[in-house]
Design brief:
heterodimer, A: MetI-like fold, about 75% helix, globular, B: mainly alpha
Protein backbone atom coordinates (compact mmCIF):
# COMPACT_ATOMS: atom_id res chain seq x y z
CA UNK A 1 0.00 0.00 0.00
CA UNK A 2 2.73 2.45 0.87
CA UNK A 3 5.31 1.64 -1.74
CA UNK A 4 3.54 3.24 -4.73
CA UNK A 5 2.84 6.43 -2.81
CA UNK A 6 6.47 6.82 -1.96
CA UNK A 7 7.49 6.12 -5.53
CA UNK A 8 5.21 8.94 -6.69
CA UNK A 9 7.00 11.49 -4.63
CA UNK A 10 10.46 9.98 -4.91
CA UNK A 11 11.75 12.38 -7.55
CA UNK A 12 10.79 15.72 -6.08
CA UNK A 13 10.61 15.11 -2.40
CA UNK A 14 13.51 12.79 -1.83
CA UNK A 15 15.71 15.22 0.16
CA UNK A 16 13.00 16.37 2.54
CA UNK A 17 11.65 12.88 3.04
CA UNK A 18 15.08 11.80 4.13
CA UNK A 19 15.41 14.64 6.60
CA UNK A 20 12.17 13.88 8.46
CA UNK A 21 12.82 10.18 8.50
CA UNK A 22 13.74 9.56 12.19
CA UNK A 23 10.53 11.26 13.31
CA UNK A 24 8.54 9.33 10.75
CA UNK A 25 9.96 6.03 11.87
CA UNK A 26 9.28 6.75 15.52
CA UNK A 27 5.86 8.40 14.97
CA UNK A 28 3.61 5.35 15.44
CA UNK A 29 5.48 4.36 18.59
CA UNK A 30 5.43 7.86 20.07
CA UNK A 31 1.73 8.25 19.30
CA UNK A 32 0.83 4.96 20.93
CA UNK A 33 3.28 5.31 23.84
CA UNK A 34 0.95 7.01 26.38
CA UNK A 35 -1.92 4.61 25.67
CA UNK A 36 0.42 1.64 25.63
CA UNK A 37 1.98 2.55 28.96
CA UNK A 38 -1.38 3.26 30.57
CA UNK A 39 -2.83 -0.06 29.41
CA UNK A 40 0.35 -1.90 30.41
CA UNK A 41 0.53 -0.47 33.91
CA UNK A 42 -3.18 -0.28 34.68
CA UNK A 43 -4.55 -3.22 32.74
CA UNK A 44 -1.98 -5.91 31.91
CA UNK A 45 0.20 -5.65 35.02
CA UNK A 46 -2.84 -5.74 37.37
CA UNK A 47 -3.86 -9.00 35.68
CA UNK A 48 -0.42 -10.43 36.47
CA UNK A 49 -0.64 -9.06 40.02
CA UNK A 50 -4.04 -10.73 40.33
CA UNK A 51 -2.62 -14.08 39.26
CA UNK A 52 0.22 -13.70 41.74
CA UNK A 53 -2.17 -12.65 44.53
CA UNK A 54 -4.20 -15.80 43.96
CA UNK A 55 -1.06 -17.85 44.70
CA UNK A 56 -0.30 -16.00 47.93
CA UNK A 57 -1.53 -16.63 51.41
CA UNK A 58 -3.13 -13.62 52.99
CA UNK A 59 -3.80 -12.78 56.58
CA UNK A 60 -7.45 -11.67 56.65
CA UNK A 61 -6.86 -9.51 59.73
CA UNK A 62 -3.95 -7.43 58.43
CA UNK A 63 -4.36 -7.92 54.70
CA UNK A 64 -0.66 -8.80 54.43
CA UNK A 65 0.08 -11.41 51.77
CA UNK A 66 3.04 -13.74 51.33
CA UNK A 67 3.82 -15.63 48.13
CA UNK A 68 3.41 -19.34 48.83
CA UNK A 69 2.69 -20.72 45.32
CA UNK A 70 -0.54 -21.98 46.72
CA UNK A 71 -2.03 -23.45 43.52
CA UNK A 72 -4.57 -25.36 45.60
CA UNK A 73 -6.40 -22.04 46.06
CA UNK A 74 -7.98 -22.52 42.63
CA UNK A 75 -9.26 -25.98 43.49
CA UNK A 76 -10.61 -24.83 46.85
CA UNK A 77 -12.37 -21.78 45.41
CA UNK A 78 -13.85 -23.77 42.53
CA UNK A 79 -15.14 -26.51 44.78
CA UNK A 80 -16.64 -23.88 47.08
CA UNK A 81 -18.23 -21.76 44.40
CA UNK A 82 -18.80 -23.96 41.34
CA UNK A 83 -22.60 -23.59 41.72
CA UNK A 84 -22.25 -19.81 41.44
CA UNK A 85 -20.11 -20.28 38.33
CA UNK A 86 -22.72 -22.53 36.76
CA UNK A 87 -25.49 -20.08 37.67
CA UNK A 88 -23.50 -17.24 36.07
CA UNK A 89 -22.91 -19.19 32.85
CA UNK A 90 -26.57 -20.15 32.75
CA UNK A 91 -27.91 -16.61 33.34
CA UNK A 92 -25.38 -14.88 31.08
CA UNK A 93 -25.97 -17.48 28.35
CA UNK A 94 -29.74 -17.08 28.50
CA UNK A 95 -29.47 -13.28 28.47
CA UNK A 96 -27.02 -13.35 25.55
CA UNK A 97 -29.31 -15.62 23.55
CA UNK A 98 -32.25 -13.28 24.17
CA UNK A 99 -30.10 -10.30 23.17
CA UNK A 100 -29.01 -11.98 19.92
CA UNK A 101 -32.55 -12.97 18.96
CA UNK A 102 -34.04 -9.58 19.88
CA UNK A 103 -31.35 -7.40 18.32
CA UNK A 104 -30.71 -9.24 15.06
CA UNK A 105 -33.91 -8.01 13.33
CA UNK A 106 -33.43 -4.41 14.46
CA UNK A 107 -29.76 -4.41 13.45
CA UNK A 108 -30.83 -5.85 10.10
CA UNK A 109 -33.53 -3.23 9.68
CA UNK A 110 -31.23 -0.31 10.52
CA UNK A 111 -28.46 -1.61 8.27
CA UNK A 112 -30.71 -2.26 5.24
CA UNK A 113 -33.56 0.21 5.61
CA UNK A 114 -32.13 2.89 7.90
CA UNK A 115 -31.40 5.17 4.95
CA UNK A 116 -29.99 8.50 6.05
CA UNK A 117 -31.47 8.07 9.53
CA UNK A 118 -29.02 5.31 10.48
CA UNK A 119 -27.17 7.51 12.96
CA UNK A 120 -30.44 8.45 14.63
CA UNK A 121 -31.46 4.82 15.08
CA UNK A 122 -28.02 3.87 16.39
CA UNK A 123 -28.33 6.70 18.90
CA UNK A 124 -31.69 5.27 19.97
CA UNK A 125 -29.97 1.93 20.63
CA UNK A 126 -27.46 3.75 22.83
CA UNK A 127 -30.06 5.73 24.79
CA UNK A 128 -29.89 3.44 27.87
CA UNK A 129 -26.19 4.30 28.24
CA UNK A 130 -27.08 7.86 29.17
CA UNK A 131 -28.67 6.66 32.39
CA UNK A 132 -26.56 5.11 35.07
CA UNK A 133 -26.46 1.31 34.96
CA UNK A 134 -27.48 1.12 38.64
CA UNK A 135 -30.48 3.43 38.15
CA UNK A 136 -31.65 1.43 35.11
CA UNK A 137 -31.54 -1.73 37.18
CA UNK A 138 -33.36 -0.06 40.07
CA UNK A 139 -36.12 1.02 37.65
CA UNK A 140 -36.40 -2.59 36.44
CA UNK A 141 -36.75 -3.62 40.06
CA UNK A 142 -39.80 -1.36 40.26
CA UNK A 143 -41.17 -2.50 36.90
CA UNK A 144 -40.97 -6.15 37.88
CA UNK A 145 -42.11 -5.69 41.46
CA UNK A 146 -45.10 -7.75 42.59
CA UNK A 147 -47.58 -4.87 42.52
CA UNK A 148 -45.65 -2.89 39.87
CA UNK A 149 -47.09 -1.48 36.68
CA UNK A 150 -46.89 -4.74 34.71
CA UNK A 151 -47.51 -7.52 37.22
CA UNK A 152 -49.91 -5.39 39.27
CA UNK A 153 -52.02 -4.60 36.22
CA UNK A 154 -52.04 -8.20 35.02
CA UNK A 155 -53.02 -9.39 38.47
CA UNK A 156 -55.83 -6.85 38.71
CA UNK A 157 -57.44 -8.10 35.50
CA UNK A 158 -56.98 -11.64 36.72
CA UNK A 159 -54.51 -12.81 34.08
CA UNK A 160 -52.00 -13.76 36.75
CA UNK A 161 -52.56 -15.32 40.18
CA UNK A 162 -51.90 -12.98 43.09
CA UNK A 163 -49.03 -15.12 44.30
CA UNK A 164 -47.14 -14.80 40.99
CA UNK A 165 -43.80 -13.05 41.27
CA UNK A 166 -40.75 -12.43 39.10
CA UNK A 167 -38.54 -10.38 41.38
CA UNK A 168 -35.99 -12.35 43.39
CA UNK A 169 -35.99 -15.12 40.81
CA UNK A 170 -33.55 -16.01 38.06
CA UNK A 171 -36.03 -14.73 35.46
CA UNK A 172 -35.72 -11.19 36.80
CA UNK A 173 -31.90 -11.40 36.69
CA UNK A 174 -31.96 -12.65 33.09
CA UNK A 175 -34.45 -9.90 32.14
CA UNK A 176 -32.23 -7.24 33.70
CA UNK A 177 -29.09 -8.61 32.03
CA UNK A 178 -30.86 -8.82 28.67
CA UNK A 179 -31.98 -5.20 28.94
CA UNK A 180 -28.65 -3.81 30.13
CA UNK A 181 -26.49 -5.65 27.60
CA UNK A 182 -28.72 -5.37 24.52
CA UNK A 183 -26.73 -2.48 22.96
CA UNK A 184 -23.52 -4.53 23.28
CA UNK A 185 -25.14 -7.14 21.03
CA UNK A 186 -26.99 -4.87 18.64
CA UNK A 187 -24.03 -2.68 17.66
CA UNK A 188 -21.60 -5.42 16.52
CA UNK A 189 -24.46 -7.10 14.67
CA UNK A 190 -25.25 -3.82 12.95
CA UNK A 191 -21.59 -3.42 11.94
CA UNK A 192 -21.58 -6.95 10.53
CA UNK A 193 -24.80 -6.58 8.54
CA UNK A 194 -23.99 -3.06 7.38
CA UNK A 195 -20.79 -4.35 5.84
CA UNK A 196 -22.49 -6.90 3.58
CA UNK A 197 -22.05 -5.87 -0.02
CA UNK A 198 -25.61 -5.29 -1.20
CA UNK A 199 -24.63 -6.43 -4.72
CA UNK A 200 -24.07 -9.95 -3.37
CA UNK A 201 -27.71 -9.95 -2.35
CA UNK A 202 -28.75 -8.66 -5.78
CA UNK A 203 -26.72 -11.46 -7.33
CA UNK A 204 -28.56 -14.01 -5.18
CA UNK A 205 -31.92 -12.67 -6.37
CA UNK A 206 -30.70 -12.66 -9.98
CA UNK A 207 -29.99 -16.34 -9.52
CA UNK A 208 -33.61 -16.86 -8.44
CA UNK A 209 -33.02 -17.15 -4.73
CA UNK A 210 -36.13 -16.75 -2.63
CA UNK A 211 -35.99 -14.27 0.24
CA UNK A 212 -35.62 -17.17 2.64
CA UNK A 213 -32.73 -18.66 0.69
CA UNK A 214 -31.06 -15.28 0.32
CA UNK A 215 -31.26 -14.79 4.06
CA UNK A 216 -30.15 -18.27 5.09
CA UNK A 217 -27.44 -18.76 2.47
CA UNK A 218 -26.11 -15.24 1.90
CA UNK A 219 -26.85 -12.88 4.78
CA UNK A 220 -26.54 -15.30 7.69
CA UNK A 221 -23.19 -16.85 6.67
CA UNK A 222 -21.75 -13.37 6.09
CA UNK A 223 -22.79 -12.23 9.56
CA UNK A 224 -21.42 -15.24 11.43
CA UNK A 225 -18.19 -13.49 12.52
CA UNK A 226 -20.30 -10.56 13.73
CA UNK A 227 -22.64 -12.92 15.57
CA UNK A 228 -19.71 -14.44 17.43
CA UNK A 229 -18.24 -11.02 18.20
CA UNK A 230 -21.63 -9.91 19.54
CA UNK A 231 -21.85 -13.09 21.56
CA UNK A 232 -18.44 -12.51 23.18
CA UNK A 233 -19.05 -8.80 23.81
CA UNK A 234 -22.31 -9.62 25.59
CA UNK A 235 -21.63 -12.96 27.26
CA UNK A 236 -18.25 -12.17 28.83
CA UNK A 237 -19.29 -8.90 30.54
CA UNK A 238 -22.63 -10.43 31.60
CA UNK A 239 -20.78 -13.38 33.14
CA UNK A 240 -19.09 -11.14 35.69
CA UNK A 241 -22.11 -8.93 36.36
CA UNK A 242 -23.40 -8.79 39.90
CA UNK A 243 -25.46 -5.60 39.97
CA UNK A 244 -28.47 -7.22 38.27
CA UNK A 245 -28.28 -10.24 40.53
CA UNK A 246 -27.94 -8.13 43.67
CA UNK A 247 -30.82 -5.78 42.86
CA UNK A 248 -33.18 -8.10 40.96
CA UNK A 249 -32.26 -11.59 42.10
CA UNK A 250 -32.86 -13.60 45.24
CA UNK A 251 -30.44 -15.13 47.66
CA UNK A 252 -30.63 -18.57 46.08
CA UNK A 253 -29.12 -17.63 42.71
CA UNK A 254 -25.89 -15.83 43.59
CA UNK A 255 -23.61 -15.18 40.62
CA UNK A 256 -19.84 -15.43 40.70
CA UNK A 257 -19.47 -11.63 40.54
CA UNK A 258 -21.13 -11.30 43.94
CA UNK A 259 -18.68 -13.80 45.40
CA UNK A 260 -15.67 -11.96 43.95
CA UNK A 261 -16.95 -8.60 45.16
CA UNK A 262 -17.51 -10.00 48.66
CA UNK A 263 -14.05 -11.55 48.76
CA UNK A 264 -12.39 -8.26 47.89
CA UNK A 265 -14.55 -5.77 49.73
CA UNK A 266 -16.18 -7.65 52.62
CA UNK A 267 -14.11 -10.62 53.76
CA UNK A 268 -10.82 -9.19 52.40
CA UNK A 269 -9.88 -12.63 51.10
CA UNK A 270 -7.73 -11.24 48.29
CA UNK A 271 -6.27 -14.63 47.41
CA UNK A 272 -9.66 -16.28 47.00
CA UNK A 273 -11.16 -13.35 45.08
CA UNK A 274 -8.12 -13.20 42.81
CA UNK A 275 -8.31 -16.91 42.09
CA UNK A 276 -11.97 -16.61 41.05
CA UNK A 277 -11.26 -13.48 38.96
CA UNK A 278 -8.40 -15.31 37.26
CA UNK A 279 -10.74 -18.17 36.36
CA UNK A 280 -13.26 -15.66 34.98
CA UNK A 281 -10.53 -13.96 32.95
CA UNK A 282 -9.38 -17.36 31.70
CA UNK A 283 -12.91 -18.08 30.45
CA UNK A 284 -12.89 -14.72 28.63
CA UNK A 285 -9.47 -15.45 27.10
CA UNK A 286 -10.51 -18.91 25.97
CA UNK A 287 -13.53 -17.39 24.22
CA UNK A 288 -11.43 -14.76 22.48
CA UNK A 289 -8.71 -17.21 21.43
CA UNK A 290 -11.31 -19.67 20.16
CA UNK A 291 -12.75 -16.85 18.06
CA UNK A 292 -9.31 -15.95 16.74
CA UNK A 293 -8.54 -19.57 15.86
CA UNK A 294 -11.82 -20.23 14.10
CA UNK A 295 -12.62 -16.90 12.46
CA UNK A 296 -9.23 -15.22 12.21
CA UNK A 297 -7.64 -12.86 14.72
CA UNK A 298 -7.85 -9.82 12.47
CA UNK A 299 -11.60 -9.74 12.28
CA UNK A 300 -12.76 -9.58 15.87
CA UNK A 301 -11.74 -6.05 16.74
CA UNK A 302 -13.45 -4.72 13.63
CA UNK A 303 -16.78 -5.20 15.37
CA UNK A 304 -16.07 -2.90 18.28
CA UNK B 1 -23.18 8.77 1.57
CA UNK B 2 -23.21 5.96 -1.00
CA UNK B 3 -24.15 3.22 1.42
CA UNK B 4 -27.68 4.44 2.29
CA UNK B 5 -28.41 5.09 -1.38
CA UNK B 6 -27.44 1.55 -2.33
CA UNK B 7 -29.48 0.20 0.59
CA UNK B 8 -32.52 2.03 -0.72
CA UNK B 9 -31.98 0.70 -4.23
CA UNK B 10 -31.61 -2.82 -2.82
CA UNK B 11 -34.87 -2.38 -0.98
CA UNK B 12 -36.68 -1.45 -4.15
CA UNK B 13 -35.04 -4.33 -6.01
CA UNK B 14 -36.29 -6.81 -3.46
CA UNK B 15 -39.68 -5.18 -3.62
CA UNK B 16 -40.11 -5.51 -7.39
CA UNK B 17 -38.66 -8.99 -7.61
CA UNK B 18 -40.59 -10.52 -4.80
CA UNK B 19 -43.77 -8.82 -5.94
CA UNK B 20 -45.32 -11.72 -7.73
CA UNK B 21 -47.85 -14.21 -6.52
CA UNK B 22 -47.32 -13.25 -2.90
CA UNK B 23 -47.96 -9.58 -3.52
CA UNK B 24 -50.92 -9.13 -1.21
CA UNK B 25 -49.14 -10.89 1.63
CA UNK B 26 -46.08 -8.69 1.30
CA UNK B 27 -48.17 -5.55 1.63
CA UNK B 28 -48.49 -6.02 5.35
CA UNK B 29 -45.40 -8.13 6.04
CA UNK B 30 -43.20 -5.22 5.07
CA UNK B 31 -44.42 -3.41 8.18
CA UNK B 32 -43.29 -6.20 10.50
CA UNK B 33 -39.65 -5.16 10.64
CA UNK B 34 -40.16 -1.41 11.21
CA UNK B 35 -42.91 -1.98 13.78
CA UNK B 36 -40.76 -4.55 15.55
CA UNK B 37 -37.76 -2.19 15.55
CA UNK B 38 -39.77 0.67 17.00
CA UNK B 39 -41.06 -1.70 19.67
CA UNK B 40 -37.48 -2.59 20.61
CA UNK B 41 -36.60 1.10 20.78
CA UNK B 42 -39.67 1.69 22.96
CA UNK B 43 -38.53 -1.16 25.21
CA UNK B 44 -35.09 0.45 25.52
CA UNK B 45 -36.54 3.88 26.29
CA UNK B 46 -39.35 2.68 28.59
CA UNK B 47 -37.39 2.43 31.90
CA UNK B 48 -35.78 5.81 31.22
CA UNK B 49 -39.15 7.42 30.62
CA UNK B 50 -40.32 5.92 33.92
CA UNK B 51 -37.30 7.37 35.69
CA UNK B 52 -38.01 10.86 34.30
CA UNK B 53 -41.72 10.54 35.13
CA UNK B 54 -41.15 9.41 38.70
CA UNK B 55 -38.71 12.21 39.39
CA UNK B 56 -41.90 14.32 39.46
CA UNK B 57 -43.78 11.98 41.78
CA UNK B 58 -45.08 13.14 45.15
CA UNK B 59 -44.11 11.16 48.23
CA UNK B 60 -46.92 10.56 50.69
CA UNK B 61 -45.35 8.19 53.18
CA UNK B 62 -43.30 10.89 54.87
CA UNK B 63 -40.11 8.94 54.22
CA UNK B 64 -38.32 10.58 51.26
CA UNK B 65 -38.04 7.43 49.15
CA UNK B 66 -39.11 6.73 45.59
CA UNK B 67 -42.24 4.63 45.43
CA UNK B 68 -43.83 3.40 42.24
CA UNK B 69 -47.34 4.33 43.13
CA UNK B 70 -48.25 7.56 41.34
CA UNK B 71 -49.14 10.14 44.00
CA UNK B 72 -49.38 13.25 41.88
CA UNK B 73 -47.12 15.71 40.14
CA UNK B 74 -44.62 17.79 42.09
CA UNK B 75 -41.50 19.82 41.43
CA UNK B 76 -40.47 19.40 45.05
CA UNK B 77 -37.49 17.15 44.28
CA UNK B 78 -36.17 19.57 41.66
CA UNK B 79 -36.43 22.45 44.15
CA UNK B 80 -34.79 20.34 46.87
CA UNK B 81 -32.26 18.74 44.56
CA UNK B 82 -29.35 19.34 46.93
CA UNK B 83 -31.11 18.28 50.13
CA UNK B 84 -29.32 14.95 50.42
CA UNK B 85 -25.73 15.96 51.26
CA UNK B 86 -24.09 12.60 50.53
CA UNK B 87 -25.81 12.37 47.16
CA UNK B 88 -24.88 15.90 46.08
CA UNK B 89 -21.24 15.33 47.05
CA UNK B 90 -21.23 12.02 45.18
CA UNK B 91 -22.71 13.69 42.11
CA UNK B 92 -20.11 16.47 41.98
CA UNK B 93 -17.33 13.95 42.56
CA UNK B 94 -18.63 11.98 39.58
CA UNK B 95 -18.79 15.10 37.41
CA UNK B 96 -15.23 16.16 38.28
CA UNK B 97 -14.02 12.61 37.77
CA UNK B 98 -15.79 12.28 34.41
CA UNK B 99 -14.36 15.58 33.14
CA UNK B 100 -10.81 14.69 34.18
CA UNK B 101 -11.11 11.16 32.84
CA UNK B 102 -12.54 12.44 29.54
CA UNK B 103 -9.66 14.90 29.07
CA UNK B 104 -6.97 12.28 29.69
CA UNK B 105 -8.54 9.42 27.79
CA UNK B 106 -9.58 11.54 24.79
CA UNK B 107 -6.05 12.87 24.26
CA UNK B 108 -4.37 9.50 24.83
CA UNK B 109 -6.98 7.52 22.89
CA UNK B 110 -6.92 9.91 19.92
CA UNK B 111 -3.13 9.65 19.66
CA UNK B 112 -3.46 5.87 19.69
CA UNK B 113 -6.17 6.01 17.03
CA UNK B 114 -3.93 8.17 14.82
CA UNK B 115 -1.12 5.62 15.16
CA UNK B 116 -3.47 2.70 14.41
CA UNK B 117 -5.08 4.26 11.35
CA UNK B 118 -1.91 5.50 9.71
CA UNK B 119 0.77 2.92 10.29
CA UNK B 120 0.72 -0.74 9.33
CA UNK B 121 3.02 -3.67 8.88
CA UNK B 122 6.73 -3.04 9.18
CA UNK B 123 6.24 0.64 10.03
CA UNK B 124 4.33 -0.24 13.20
CA UNK B 125 5.53 -3.43 14.83
CA UNK B 126 3.42 -4.38 17.82
CA UNK B 127 0.24 -2.98 16.31
CA UNK B 128 -1.51 -6.35 16.55
CA UNK B 129 -0.44 -6.63 20.18
CA UNK B 130 -1.96 -3.23 20.97
CA UNK B 131 -5.16 -4.07 19.09
CA UNK B 132 -5.51 -7.35 20.93
CA UNK B 133 -4.91 -5.63 24.27
CA UNK B 134 -7.62 -3.11 23.38
CA UNK B 135 -10.07 -5.85 22.52
CA UNK B 136 -9.28 -7.73 25.69
CA UNK B 137 -9.72 -4.51 27.66
CA UNK B 138 -13.18 -3.95 26.17
CA UNK B 139 -14.34 -7.57 26.29
CA UNK B 140 -13.02 -8.46 29.75
CA UNK B 141 -15.61 -8.68 32.53
CA UNK B 142 -15.51 -5.35 34.31
CA UNK B 143 -15.36 -7.05 37.68
CA UNK B 144 -11.99 -8.52 36.70
CA UNK B 145 -10.66 -5.06 35.77
CA UNK B 146 -11.87 -3.61 39.06
CA UNK B 147 -10.65 -6.49 41.18
CA UNK B 148 -7.23 -6.60 39.52
CA UNK B 149 -6.80 -2.82 39.91
CA UNK B 150 -7.69 -3.09 43.58
CA UNK B 151 -5.13 -5.88 43.86
CA UNK B 152 -2.51 -3.62 42.28
CA UNK B 153 -3.34 -0.63 44.50
CA UNK B 154 -3.28 -2.84 47.61
CA UNK B 155 0.05 -4.36 46.56
CA UNK B 156 1.76 -1.02 45.93
CA UNK B 157 -0.02 0.48 48.95
CA UNK B 158 -1.70 3.33 47.08
CA UNK B 159 -4.51 4.91 49.11
CA UNK B 160 -7.90 4.62 47.37
CA UNK B 161 -9.55 7.89 46.43
CA UNK B 162 -9.90 10.33 43.54
CA UNK B 163 -6.50 9.46 42.05
CA UNK B 164 -7.13 5.72 41.91
CA UNK B 165 -10.60 6.37 40.47
CA UNK B 166 -9.10 8.57 37.76
CA UNK B 167 -6.36 6.05 36.91
CA UNK B 168 -8.97 3.30 36.63
CA UNK B 169 -11.47 5.31 34.59
CA UNK B 170 -8.86 6.39 32.06
CA UNK B 171 -7.67 2.78 31.85
CA UNK B 172 -11.08 1.49 30.77
CA UNK B 173 -11.88 4.49 28.53
CA UNK B 174 -8.78 4.63 26.32
CA UNK B 175 -9.68 1.61 24.21
CA UNK B 176 -13.26 2.83 23.66
CA UNK B 177 -12.05 6.30 22.65
CA UNK B 178 -9.45 4.86 20.28
CA UNK B 179 -12.02 2.58 18.65
CA UNK B 180 -14.57 5.40 18.28
CA UNK B 181 -12.07 7.90 16.86
CA UNK B 182 -10.61 5.32 14.51
CA UNK B 183 -14.05 4.40 13.21
CA UNK B 184 -14.67 8.03 12.23
CA UNK B 185 -11.19 8.37 10.73
CA UNK B 186 -11.41 5.63 8.15
CA UNK B 187 -11.95 7.27 4.81
CA UNK B 188 -9.81 10.19 5.89
CA UNK B 189 -8.21 11.70 2.80
CA UNK B 190 -4.47 11.78 3.42
CA UNK B 191 -3.76 13.60 0.18
CA UNK B 192 -4.97 16.79 1.89
CA UNK B 193 -2.11 16.48 4.36
CA UNK B 194 0.32 15.71 1.60
CA UNK B 195 -0.85 18.77 -0.29
CA UNK B 196 -0.24 20.91 2.78
CA UNK B 197 3.21 19.37 3.18
CA UNK B 198 3.98 20.11 -0.46
CA UNK B 199 3.00 23.71 0.18
CA UNK B 200 5.60 23.87 2.93
CA UNK B 201 3.54 23.40 6.09
CA UNK B 202 5.36 21.73 8.96
CA UNK B 203 3.84 18.80 10.88
CA UNK B 204 2.34 20.98 13.62
CA UNK B 205 0.66 23.33 11.15
CA UNK B 206 -0.64 20.34 9.18
CA UNK B 207 -2.12 18.84 12.31
CA UNK B 208 -3.68 22.09 13.49
CA UNK B 209 -5.06 23.27 10.15
CA UNK B 210 -5.86 20.02 8.31
CA UNK B 211 -5.91 16.88 10.44
CA UNK B 212 -7.56 18.16 13.58
CA UNK B 213 -10.54 19.92 11.93
CA UNK B 214 -11.19 16.81 9.84
CA UNK B 215 -11.11 14.34 12.73
CA UNK B 216 -12.87 16.66 15.21
CA UNK B 217 -16.29 14.92 14.90
CA UNK B 218 -14.60 11.61 15.72
CA UNK B 219 -12.79 13.12 18.71
CA UNK B 220 -16.06 14.61 19.97
CA UNK B 221 -17.77 11.24 19.66
CA UNK B 222 -14.86 9.61 21.54
CA UNK B 223 -14.99 12.24 24.28
CA UNK B 224 -18.74 11.74 24.65
CA UNK B 225 -18.17 8.00 24.95
CA UNK B 226 -15.48 8.51 27.62
CA UNK B 227 -17.70 10.89 29.59
CA UNK B 228 -20.67 8.51 29.48
CA UNK B 229 -18.50 5.55 30.52
CA UNK B 230 -16.98 7.42 33.43
CA UNK B 231 -20.09 9.05 34.89
CA UNK B 232 -21.99 5.76 34.62
CA UNK B 233 -19.34 3.42 35.96
CA UNK B 234 -20.22 1.39 39.00
CA UNK B 235 -18.34 -1.91 39.06
CA UNK B 236 -14.75 -0.64 38.77
CA UNK B 237 -15.45 2.44 40.90
CA UNK B 238 -16.89 0.31 43.67
CA UNK B 239 -13.56 -1.53 43.91
CA UNK B 240 -11.17 1.42 43.78
CA UNK B 241 -13.16 4.28 45.34
CA UNK B 242 -12.26 3.90 49.01
CA UNK B 243 -13.83 6.75 50.95
CA UNK B 244 -14.56 8.85 47.83
CA UNK B 245 -18.02 7.75 46.69
CA UNK B 246 -19.02 8.49 43.07
CA UNK B 247 -22.70 8.85 42.15
CA UNK B 248 -23.45 5.26 40.95
CA UNK B 249 -21.69 3.78 44.00
CA UNK B 250 -23.77 6.00 46.28
CA UNK B 251 -26.99 4.98 44.53
CA UNK B 252 -26.08 1.30 44.79
CA UNK B 253 -25.45 1.71 48.51
CA UNK B 254 -28.80 3.47 48.87
CA UNK B 255 -30.75 0.64 47.20
CA UNK B 256 -30.53 -1.29 50.49
CA UNK B 257 -32.36 1.40 52.44
CA UNK B 258 -34.54 2.96 49.74
CA UNK B 259 -33.36 5.61 47.32
CA UNK B 260 -34.33 9.28 47.74
CA UNK B 261 -36.25 10.85 44.81
CA UNK B 262 -33.32 13.20 44.17
CA UNK B 263 -31.50 10.23 42.60
CA UNK B 264 -34.01 10.36 39.75
CA UNK B 265 -33.56 14.12 39.47
CA UNK B 266 -29.81 13.67 39.02
CA UNK B 267 -30.43 10.74 36.69
CA UNK B 268 -32.73 12.88 34.57
CA UNK B 269 -30.21 15.73 34.51
CA UNK B 270 -27.35 13.45 33.41
CA UNK B 271 -29.59 11.85 30.79
CA UNK B 272 -30.72 15.22 29.39
CA UNK B 273 -27.19 16.59 29.12
CA UNK B 274 -25.91 13.33 27.62
CA UNK B 275 -28.63 13.04 25.02
CA UNK B 276 -28.27 16.72 24.01
CA UNK B 277 -24.52 16.24 23.50
CA UNK B 278 -25.17 13.08 21.50
CA UNK B 279 -27.72 14.82 19.28
CA UNK B 280 -25.26 17.67 18.78
CA UNK B 281 -22.56 15.22 17.75
CA UNK B 282 -24.92 13.51 15.29
CA UNK B 283 -25.78 16.90 13.78
CA UNK B 284 -22.10 17.85 13.54
CA UNK B 285 -21.58 14.50 11.83
CA UNK B 286 -24.27 15.39 9.28
CA UNK B 287 -22.75 18.77 8.53
CA UNK B 288 -19.39 17.15 7.87
CA UNK B 289 -18.67 17.58 4.17
CA UNK B 290 -17.96 14.28 2.47
Amino acid sequence: MEQPVRADHAGQLAPRRRRVRPGKVLAPYLLSLPAGLWLLILFLIPLVVMLSLSLQSCNPATGACVMTWHWAEFGQQLSLYHTQFITSIWFAGAATLICLVVSFPIAYWIAFYGGNRKNFFLLMLLVPFFVSFVIRTVVWQFILSDQGIILGALKNVGLLPQSFHVLSTGYAVVAGLAYNYLPFTALPLYVAIERIDKRVLDAAYDLYATRRQAFLRVILPLTIPGLFAAFLLTFIPALGDYVNQQILGGTGDTMIGTVIQNSFLVTLDYAGGSALSTVLMAVALIGIFAYARILGSRTIEEYL
Amino acid sequence: MTAPASAVSTATTIETRAAGPGRRRRRWTRFILPVYSWLVIAYLVFPIALMVLYSFNKVTTGLPQVSFAWNGFTLQWYREWSNVPGLTAAFWLSVRLAIASTLFSTVIGTLLALALVRYQGRRFRGKTLIEQTMFLNIAAPEIVLGASLLGLFVTINLARGFVTLLLAHVAFSIAYVAVTVRARMTGFDRSLEEAAADLGANSWVIFRKITFPLIRPGILAGALMAFALSIDDFVTSNFVSGAATPFPVWVYGATRIGIPPQVFVFGTAIFTVGILCAIASVIIGWRKPT
